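lol forgot to send this yesterday, sorry. C-alpha cells for the thing we talked abt
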C-alpha cells in the first residue's frame, strides 16, 4: 500500500498544539491557587503591621548606648549628648564579678552587671591620683536636693566633672563615703569601649583612704572598698582590676551584644553599603558589558593567557620554596632588568626551612596541571574563535535591545528594598519594648 505522509502528520500535530496553546493564552485568566494568595496577602499585612509597630516603639540607640539608673537610654531624650555609660559603684561591680568579701555563690548568680547602677556621661571620668584627694561621680543633679546650691543644674555638673560632693550636706557626704550615693568614688582609670567605660590600671591607691575607709565605729556595708575589715592589710585596688574589667568585657562581647553592634554598624554605615554593594556593582557590570562588546577577542585571549601565566608562576614559586630552583638562578635573569626587583625577589624566593619534600610533591603536581592547562588551551584555540563570535552576537543583541539590561537590575533592586525593609523592621523590633527596673537591696 501507499506509505503514510509522516511529515504532513507531524505538521498537523504541531499546528494543533499551537492552536490549542493560542486559545489557552487568549482565554480568560484567573488565579488557580487561592490558598497561597491568601497566605501571601496575610504575610504582607503582617510585615506592614510589624514594621509600623517597630518604628513606632523601637529605640535603636539602646542597642549601642545602653541605659542609666533611671532606665533611660543614653544619648536620647534627657540624656541627649551623653553617650557614654559608666558604672558608678565599684562595690556593685565587685559584687557582679563575685569578688566581694563574704559574698555567697547564690548571691552571685542572682546579681549581675545589669543590676549595677550606671549613669550616662559625655566621657569617662578619671581618678585624681593625688594624696588626700579623690574624684567622685554623682547622680544627675535634678534627682538630688542640694541645699547649698539650689540652682545647681546639669551644665554646672558637667563643668565640675560630674562631681558636686563638696556641695552636699553632712548626711549626704556620709552616705556617699559609704558608697550609697548620691556620689561615688572614682577609683579606677577608664577608657571608652563601645560607649561603655572599661576599667584598667592599678587603681587610685592614694585616694582610696578618702573614698570609704570611715572610722571603725561608722556603720555601712561599704565601710571598706573590698575588704570586710578597715585595716591597712586590705588587698590593693589593682588586685581586682582584671576581675572587674572582665565582667564589663563579658557584657560587651556576649553574643547578644555582638549582634547589637553589627546592627548598629549597619545603621551607621548603610550609605557605604548601598554605594559599595549596589551602585558600584551596577556601574562596573555596565562597564564590563561595554568592554565585552567592543573588546571581545582581547578579553577572551587575555583570560586564557592569564590562566596559563598564573599556573606557571605558582609552579615556579613551589620549586623555589622546595629548593629545586635556587634564588640565585632567578636573580641572575631578573637583575638584568631591575636591581630593586632582584633584591625584593630574594626575600620571597629563599627555600622554606621545613617541609621541602612536601613542597616538591606539590610542585610536581602543579607542573602536571600546568601542562594539562596548556594543552587544553592549544586544543581550544579554534573553539575560542567560535565563542568570541557567539559573545559578539549576544552583546549585539543587547545593544539593539538595551532594555534587557534593566531586567536583572530591577528585580535585584526590588530584592534589596525588601531586604532593607526587613532589616529596618528587625532592628526596630529588636529595640522595642521598655526596660524593667529591679529593686536590688
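and heres what i got for the seq, position by position
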Amino acid at each position: 500500500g501507499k506509505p503514510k505522509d509522516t511529515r504532513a502528520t507531524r505538521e498537523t500535530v504541531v499546528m494543533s498544539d499551537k492552536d490549542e496553546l493560542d486559545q489557552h493564552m487568549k482565554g480568560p485568566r484567573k488565579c488557580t491557587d487561592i490558598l497561597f494568595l491568601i497566605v501571601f496577602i496575610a504575610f504582607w499585612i503582617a510585615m506592614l503591621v510589624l514594621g509600623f509597630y517597630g518604628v513606632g516603639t523601637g529605640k535603636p540607640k539602646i542597642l549601642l548606648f545602653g541605659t542609666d539608673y533611671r532606665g533611660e537610654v543614653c544619648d536620647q531624650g534627657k540624656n541627649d549628648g551623653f553617650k557614654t555609660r559608666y558604672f558608678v559603684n565599684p562595690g556593685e561591680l565587685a559584687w557582679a564579678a563575685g569578688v566581694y568579701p563574704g559574698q555567697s555563690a547564690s548571691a552571685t548568680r542572682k546579681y549581675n552587671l545589669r543590676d549595677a547602677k550606671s549613669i550616662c556621661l559625655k566621657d569617662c571620668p578619671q581618678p585624681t591620683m593625688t594624696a588626700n584627694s579623690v574624684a567622685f561621680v554623682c547622680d544627675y543633679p535634678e534627682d538630688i536636693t542640694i541645699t547649698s546650691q539650689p540652682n545647681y543644674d546639669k551644665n554646672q555638673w558637667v563643668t565640675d566633672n560630674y562631681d558636686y560632693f563638696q556641695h552636699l550636706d553632712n548626711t549626704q557626704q556620709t552616705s556617699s563615703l559609704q558608697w550609697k550615693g548620691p556620689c561615688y568614688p572614682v577609683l579606677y582609670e577608664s577608657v571608652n569601649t563601645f560607649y561603655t567605660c572599661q576599667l584598667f590600671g592599678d587603681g587610685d591607691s592614694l585616694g582610696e583612704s578618702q573614698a570609704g575607709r570611715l572610722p571603725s565605729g561608722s556603720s555601712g556595708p561599704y565601710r571598706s572598698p573590698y575588704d570586710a575589715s578597715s585595716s591597712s592589710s586590705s588587698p590593693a585596688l589593682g588586685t581586682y582590676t582584671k576581675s572587674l574589667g572582665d565582667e564589663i568585657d563579658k557584657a560587651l562581647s556576649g553574643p547578644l551584644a555582638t549582634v547589637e553592634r553589627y546592627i548598629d554598624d549597619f545603621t551607621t554605615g548603610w550609605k557605604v553599603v548601598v554605594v559599595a554593594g549596589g551602585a558600584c556593582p551596577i556601574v562596573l557590570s555596565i562597564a564590563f558589558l561595554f568592554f565585552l562588546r567592543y573588546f571581545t577577542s582581547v578579553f577572551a585571549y587575555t583570560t586564557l593567557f592569564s590562566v596559563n601565566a598564573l599556573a606557571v608562576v605558582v609552579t615556579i614559586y613551589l620549586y623555589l620554596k622546595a629548593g629545586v630552583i635556587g634564588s640565585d638562578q632567578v636573580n641572575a635573569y631578573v637583575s638584568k632588568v631591575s636591581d630593586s626587583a632582584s633584591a625584593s625577589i630574594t626575600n620571597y624566593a629563599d627555600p622554606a626551612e621545613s617541609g621541602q619534600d612536601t613542597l616538591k610533591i606539590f610542585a610536581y603536581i602543579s607542573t602536571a596541571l600546568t601542562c594539562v592547562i596548556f594543552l587544553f588551551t592549544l586544543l581550544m584555540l579554534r573553539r575560542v574563535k567560535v565563542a568570541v563570535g557567539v559573545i559578539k552576537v549576544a552583546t549585539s543583541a543587547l545593544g539593539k535591545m538595551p532594555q534587557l539590561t534593566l531586567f536583572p537590575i530591577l528585580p535585584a533592586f526590588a530584592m534589596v528594598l525588601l531586604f532593607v525593609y526587613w532589616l529596618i523592621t528587625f532592628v526596630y523590633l529588636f529595640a522595642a519594648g521598655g526596660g524593667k527596673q529591679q529593686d536590688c537591696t
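The first helix runs from residue 6 to 26. anyway ping me if u want another try
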